[in-house]
Amino acid sequence: MSNFMPMLYAFWDSDITYSFRKSRVAVISALVLLAMFLTAIFAPSLAPQNPFDIAELDLFDSELPPFWVEGGSTAYLLGTDTQARDVLSSIMHGMRISLLVGFASVILAAVMGVALGLLGGFLGGIVDAVLMRIADVLLSFPPILVALLINGILRGALPSSAQAESALIVLILSIGLTNWVQYARTVRGSTMVERRKEYIEAARTLGTGKLAIMMKHILPNVLGPVLVIATINLGMAVLTEATLSFLGVGMPPTQPSLGTLIQIGNEFLFSGIWWVVVFPAAALAILVLAVNLLGDWLRDALNPKLR
Known about the structure:
Pfam families: BPD_transp_1 (PF00528), OppC_N (PF12911)
InterPro entries: BP-dependent_transpt_permease, MetI-like, MetI-like_sf, OppC_N
Domain ABC transmembrane type-1: 95-295
Helix content: 55-70%
Structural class: mainly alpha
Number of domains: 1
CATH superfamily: MetI-like
CATH architecture: Orthogonal Bundle
Protein name: Dipeptide transport system permease protein DppC
Membrane topology: Multi-pass membrane protein
Shape: elongated
Oligomer: single chain
Protein backbone atom coordinates (compact mmCIF):
# COMPACT_ATOMS: atom_id res chain seq x y z
CA MET A 1 0.00 0.00 0.00
CA SER A 2 2.91 2.33 0.72
CA ASN A 3 4.15 1.92 -2.84
CA PHE A 4 0.71 2.27 -4.42
CA MET A 5 0.15 5.96 -3.68
CA PRO A 6 3.48 7.14 -5.20
CA MET A 7 2.75 5.03 -8.31
CA LEU A 8 -0.75 6.47 -8.56
CA TYR A 9 0.61 10.02 -8.18
CA ALA A 10 3.29 9.37 -10.81
CA PHE A 11 0.64 8.07 -13.22
CA TRP A 12 -1.65 11.04 -12.54
CA ASP A 13 1.26 13.44 -13.12
CA SER A 14 2.54 11.73 -16.28
CA ASP A 15 2.58 13.46 -19.68
CA ILE A 16 -0.14 11.24 -21.16
CA THR A 17 -2.50 11.71 -18.21
CA TYR A 18 -1.91 15.46 -18.27
CA SER A 19 -2.62 15.52 -22.01
CA PHE A 20 -5.80 13.52 -21.42
CA ARG A 21 -7.03 15.83 -18.66
CA LYS A 22 -6.42 18.90 -20.84
CA SER A 23 -8.28 17.50 -23.85
CA ARG A 24 -12.03 17.96 -23.52
CA VAL A 25 -12.65 15.87 -26.63
CA ALA A 26 -10.68 12.95 -25.18
CA VAL A 27 -12.41 13.17 -21.80
CA ILE A 28 -15.90 13.34 -23.32
CA SER A 29 -15.09 10.49 -25.74
CA ALA A 30 -13.76 8.36 -22.90
CA LEU A 31 -16.85 9.00 -20.77
CA VAL A 32 -19.17 8.17 -23.66
CA LEU A 33 -17.25 4.95 -24.37
CA LEU A 34 -17.24 4.00 -20.70
CA ALA A 35 -21.00 4.53 -20.48
CA MET A 36 -21.60 2.43 -23.62
CA PHE A 37 -19.25 -0.34 -22.45
CA LEU A 38 -20.91 -0.55 -19.03
CA THR A 39 -24.35 -0.48 -20.65
CA ALA A 40 -23.37 -3.34 -22.96
CA ILE A 41 -21.77 -5.42 -20.21
CA PHE A 42 -24.70 -5.08 -17.83
CA ALA A 43 -27.40 -5.10 -20.52
CA PRO A 44 -29.22 -8.15 -19.08
CA SER A 45 -29.68 -6.28 -15.79
CA LEU A 46 -30.17 -2.74 -17.13
CA ALA A 47 -32.36 -3.37 -20.16
CA PRO A 48 -36.09 -2.78 -19.49
CA GLN A 49 -36.90 -5.92 -21.47
CA ASN A 50 -35.25 -9.08 -22.73
CA PRO A 51 -36.05 -8.63 -26.44
CA PHE A 52 -35.25 -12.28 -27.18
CA ASP A 53 -37.63 -13.76 -24.60
CA ILE A 54 -40.99 -14.40 -26.26
CA ALA A 55 -42.71 -14.49 -22.88
CA GLU A 56 -41.89 -10.79 -22.36
CA LEU A 57 -43.29 -9.65 -25.72
CA ASP A 58 -46.83 -8.37 -26.21
CA LEU A 59 -47.86 -7.95 -29.85
CA PHE A 60 -50.38 -5.30 -28.82
CA ASP A 61 -47.36 -3.09 -28.07
CA SER A 62 -45.78 -3.51 -31.49
CA GLU A 63 -44.75 -0.52 -33.63
CA LEU A 64 -45.06 1.98 -30.79
CA PRO A 65 -43.20 5.25 -31.49
CA PRO A 66 -40.74 6.86 -29.03
CA PHE A 67 -42.31 8.16 -25.84
CA TRP A 68 -42.22 11.84 -26.91
CA VAL A 69 -44.20 11.12 -30.10
CA GLU A 70 -47.98 10.90 -29.99
CA GLY A 71 -48.98 7.32 -29.29
CA GLY A 72 -45.71 6.48 -27.53
CA SER A 73 -45.31 5.02 -24.05
CA THR A 74 -42.83 5.74 -21.28
CA ALA A 75 -42.49 1.96 -20.87
CA TYR A 76 -40.70 1.93 -24.25
CA LEU A 77 -38.55 5.06 -24.36
CA LEU A 78 -37.33 4.55 -27.94
CA GLY A 79 -40.40 2.70 -29.18
CA THR A 80 -40.89 -0.90 -30.30
CA ASP A 81 -40.45 -2.83 -33.53
CA THR A 82 -42.94 -4.94 -35.48
CA GLN A 83 -42.52 -7.81 -32.99
CA ALA A 84 -43.04 -5.58 -29.92
CA ARG A 85 -39.36 -5.71 -28.97
CA ASP A 86 -38.17 -2.66 -27.07
CA VAL A 87 -35.73 -0.75 -29.32
CA LEU A 88 -33.67 0.52 -26.39
CA SER A 89 -33.26 -3.01 -25.00
CA SER A 90 -32.36 -4.32 -28.45
CA ILE A 91 -29.66 -1.66 -28.80
CA MET A 92 -28.20 -2.47 -25.38
CA HIS A 93 -28.00 -6.18 -26.21
CA GLY A 94 -26.81 -5.48 -29.75
CA MET A 95 -23.91 -3.37 -28.47
CA ARG A 96 -22.67 -6.37 -26.48
CA ILE A 97 -22.20 -8.41 -29.64
CA SER A 98 -20.77 -5.51 -31.68
CA LEU A 99 -18.21 -4.68 -28.99
CA LEU A 100 -17.35 -8.35 -28.43
CA VAL A 101 -16.68 -8.83 -32.14
CA GLY A 102 -14.72 -5.56 -32.26
CA PHE A 103 -12.48 -6.29 -29.28
CA ALA A 104 -11.90 -9.96 -30.15
CA SER A 105 -11.05 -9.24 -33.79
CA VAL A 106 -8.70 -6.39 -32.82
CA ILE A 107 -6.89 -8.66 -30.34
CA LEU A 108 -6.60 -11.41 -32.97
CA ALA A 109 -5.31 -8.98 -35.60
CA ALA A 110 -2.87 -7.35 -33.17
CA VAL A 111 -1.41 -10.63 -31.91
CA MET A 112 -1.06 -12.00 -35.42
CA GLY A 113 0.30 -8.78 -36.91
CA VAL A 114 2.79 -8.11 -34.09
CA ALA A 115 4.10 -11.68 -34.23
CA LEU A 116 4.55 -11.65 -38.02
CA GLY A 117 5.99 -8.13 -37.97
CA LEU A 118 8.57 -9.11 -35.35
CA LEU A 119 9.56 -12.20 -37.32
CA GLY A 120 9.82 -10.38 -40.63
CA GLY A 121 11.67 -7.36 -39.27
CA PHE A 122 14.12 -9.31 -37.11
CA LEU A 123 14.86 -12.30 -39.34
CA GLY A 124 14.67 -10.54 -42.70
CA GLY A 125 15.50 -12.52 -45.84
CA ILE A 126 12.97 -14.88 -47.36
CA VAL A 127 10.72 -14.79 -44.29
CA ASP A 128 10.35 -11.02 -44.52
CA ALA A 129 9.89 -11.11 -48.29
CA VAL A 130 7.10 -13.70 -48.17
CA LEU A 131 5.23 -11.96 -45.33
CA MET A 132 5.40 -8.56 -47.00
CA ARG A 133 4.23 -9.90 -50.37
CA ILE A 134 1.23 -11.47 -48.66
CA ALA A 135 0.58 -8.13 -46.96
CA ASP A 136 0.86 -6.31 -50.31
CA VAL A 137 -1.69 -8.66 -51.87
CA LEU A 138 -4.17 -8.09 -49.02
CA LEU A 139 -3.69 -4.33 -49.25
CA SER A 140 -4.54 -4.47 -52.96
CA PHE A 141 -8.18 -5.20 -52.14
CA PRO A 142 -10.71 -3.23 -50.09
CA PRO A 143 -10.84 -4.64 -46.54
CA ILE A 144 -14.58 -5.31 -46.73
CA LEU A 145 -14.08 -7.52 -49.82
CA VAL A 146 -11.34 -9.48 -48.06
CA ALA A 147 -13.60 -9.89 -45.04
CA LEU A 148 -16.44 -11.07 -47.29
CA LEU A 149 -14.12 -13.57 -48.97
CA ILE A 150 -12.85 -14.99 -45.69
CA ASN A 151 -16.38 -15.02 -44.31
CA GLY A 152 -17.63 -16.95 -47.35
CA ILE A 153 -14.81 -19.49 -47.16
CA LEU A 154 -15.34 -20.12 -43.45
CA ARG A 155 -19.12 -20.41 -43.82
CA GLY A 156 -18.72 -22.74 -46.80
CA ALA A 157 -16.53 -25.05 -44.73
CA LEU A 158 -19.22 -25.38 -42.05
CA PRO A 159 -22.40 -27.45 -42.28
CA SER A 160 -25.56 -25.36 -42.67
CA SER A 161 -26.85 -26.52 -39.28
CA ALA A 162 -23.82 -25.02 -37.51
CA GLN A 163 -23.60 -21.70 -39.33
CA ALA A 164 -25.93 -19.77 -37.01
CA GLU A 165 -24.19 -21.00 -33.86
CA SER A 166 -20.74 -20.26 -35.24
CA ALA A 167 -21.59 -16.85 -36.74
CA LEU A 168 -19.81 -14.99 -33.93
CA ILE A 169 -16.56 -16.95 -34.35
CA VAL A 170 -16.71 -16.61 -38.13
CA LEU A 171 -17.13 -12.83 -37.86
CA ILE A 172 -14.21 -12.48 -35.44
CA LEU A 173 -11.93 -14.55 -37.69
CA SER A 174 -13.06 -12.74 -40.85
CA ILE A 175 -12.34 -9.27 -39.45
CA GLY A 176 -9.22 -10.27 -37.51
CA LEU A 177 -7.58 -11.99 -40.48
CA THR A 178 -8.30 -8.90 -42.59
CA ASN A 179 -6.72 -6.26 -40.33
CA TRP A 180 -3.40 -7.82 -39.26
CA VAL A 181 -1.46 -6.19 -42.11
CA GLN A 182 -1.30 -2.72 -40.53
CA TYR A 183 0.18 -4.10 -37.34
CA ALA A 184 2.68 -6.27 -39.20
CA ARG A 185 3.99 -3.46 -41.40
CA THR A 186 4.26 -1.01 -38.49
CA VAL A 187 6.01 -3.48 -36.19
CA ARG A 188 8.30 -4.66 -38.98
CA GLY A 189 9.54 -1.11 -39.61
CA SER A 190 10.11 -0.44 -35.91
CA THR A 191 11.83 -3.80 -35.46
CA MET A 192 14.25 -3.13 -38.34
CA VAL A 193 15.26 0.10 -36.59
CA GLU A 194 15.58 -1.46 -33.13
CA ARG A 195 17.59 -4.51 -34.19
CA ARG A 196 20.50 -2.31 -35.30
CA LYS A 197 20.84 -0.55 -31.96
CA GLU A 198 23.64 -1.18 -29.51
CA TYR A 199 21.57 -2.79 -26.78
CA ILE A 200 20.47 -5.51 -29.22
CA GLU A 201 24.07 -6.15 -30.23
CA ALA A 202 24.96 -6.33 -26.54
CA ALA A 203 22.22 -8.91 -25.96
CA ARG A 204 23.52 -10.97 -28.88
CA THR A 205 27.05 -10.79 -27.49
CA LEU A 206 25.80 -12.12 -24.15
CA GLY A 207 24.33 -15.13 -25.94
CA THR A 208 20.66 -14.17 -25.70
CA GLY A 209 18.52 -16.18 -28.13
CA LYS A 210 16.56 -14.61 -30.98
CA LEU A 211 13.17 -15.30 -29.41
CA ALA A 212 14.26 -13.78 -26.10
CA ILE A 213 15.61 -10.68 -27.85
CA MET A 214 12.36 -10.20 -29.75
CA MET A 215 10.13 -10.71 -26.73
CA LYS A 216 12.13 -9.01 -23.97
CA HIS A 217 13.95 -6.21 -25.79
CA ILE A 218 12.26 -5.33 -29.08
CA LEU A 219 8.58 -5.96 -28.33
CA PRO A 220 8.25 -3.43 -25.45
CA ASN A 221 9.76 -0.73 -27.68
CA VAL A 222 7.32 -1.22 -30.57
CA LEU A 223 4.03 -1.42 -28.64
CA GLY A 224 3.31 2.34 -28.68
CA PRO A 225 2.20 2.50 -32.34
CA VAL A 226 0.40 -0.83 -31.92
CA LEU A 227 -1.77 0.63 -29.17
CA VAL A 228 -2.75 3.56 -31.39
CA ILE A 229 -3.58 1.29 -34.33
CA ALA A 230 -5.62 -1.01 -32.09
CA THR A 231 -7.67 1.88 -30.72
CA ILE A 232 -8.52 3.21 -34.17
CA ASN A 233 -9.08 -0.29 -35.57
CA LEU A 234 -11.68 -0.98 -32.90
CA GLY A 235 -14.00 1.50 -34.59
CA MET A 236 -13.20 0.03 -38.00
CA ALA A 237 -13.86 -3.50 -36.73
CA VAL A 238 -17.26 -2.49 -35.33
CA LEU A 239 -18.13 -0.82 -38.65
CA THR A 240 -16.97 -3.86 -40.62
CA GLU A 241 -19.10 -6.14 -38.46
CA ALA A 242 -22.08 -3.82 -38.97
CA THR A 243 -21.51 -3.83 -42.72
CA LEU A 244 -21.30 -7.62 -42.90
CA SER A 245 -24.42 -7.98 -40.75
CA PHE A 246 -26.24 -5.38 -42.86
CA LEU A 247 -25.36 -7.39 -45.97
CA GLY A 248 -26.86 -10.49 -44.35
CA VAL A 249 -23.62 -12.43 -43.76
CA GLY A 250 -23.09 -11.42 -40.14
CA MET A 251 -25.01 -12.14 -36.97
CA PRO A 252 -28.42 -13.85 -37.34
CA PRO A 253 -31.66 -12.15 -36.19
CA THR A 254 -31.70 -14.40 -33.11
CA GLN A 255 -28.38 -12.83 -31.99
CA PRO A 256 -28.58 -9.33 -33.47
CA SER A 257 -25.72 -6.88 -33.35
CA LEU A 258 -26.14 -3.19 -34.13
CA GLY A 259 -25.58 -3.99 -37.80
CA THR A 260 -28.28 -6.67 -37.76
CA LEU A 261 -30.71 -4.27 -36.06
CA ILE A 262 -30.04 -1.70 -38.77
CA GLN A 263 -30.52 -4.31 -41.48
CA ILE A 264 -33.84 -5.44 -39.97
CA GLY A 265 -35.05 -1.88 -39.39
CA ASN A 266 -34.12 -0.80 -42.90
CA GLU A 267 -36.88 -3.02 -44.27
CA PHE A 268 -39.49 -0.92 -42.43
CA LEU A 269 -37.89 2.52 -42.90
CA PHE A 270 -40.29 3.68 -45.60
CA SER A 271 -43.35 2.29 -43.82
CA GLY A 272 -43.13 5.01 -41.17
CA ILE A 273 -41.40 3.02 -38.43
CA TRP A 274 -38.27 5.16 -38.68
CA TRP A 275 -37.18 4.70 -35.05
CA VAL A 276 -36.39 1.00 -35.60
CA VAL A 277 -33.43 1.89 -37.82
CA VAL A 278 -32.55 5.45 -36.77
CA PHE A 279 -31.70 4.74 -33.13
CA PRO A 280 -29.48 1.66 -33.73
CA ALA A 281 -27.70 3.62 -36.49
CA ALA A 282 -27.21 6.58 -34.13
CA ALA A 283 -25.80 4.28 -31.41
CA LEU A 284 -23.37 2.79 -33.93
CA ALA A 285 -22.29 6.23 -35.16
CA ILE A 286 -21.74 7.55 -31.62
CA LEU A 287 -19.74 4.45 -30.65
CA VAL A 288 -17.44 4.63 -33.68
CA LEU A 289 -17.04 8.41 -33.42
CA ALA A 290 -16.03 8.19 -29.75
CA VAL A 291 -13.49 5.44 -30.50
CA ASN A 292 -11.98 7.40 -33.39
CA LEU A 293 -11.73 10.63 -31.39
CA LEU A 294 -10.04 8.79 -28.53
CA GLY A 295 -7.68 7.13 -31.00
CA ASP A 296 -6.78 10.48 -32.54
CA TRP A 297 -5.95 11.87 -29.10
CA LEU A 298 -3.85 8.82 -28.23
CA ARG A 299 -1.94 9.10 -31.51
CA ASP A 300 -1.07 12.74 -30.77
CA ALA A 301 -0.28 12.04 -27.10
CA LEU A 302 2.22 9.32 -27.99
CA ASN A 303 3.89 11.41 -30.70
CA PRO A 304 7.02 12.94 -29.14
CA LYS A 305 7.13 15.67 -31.81
CA LEU A 306 3.83 17.08 -30.55
CA ARG A 307 4.73 17.20 -26.85
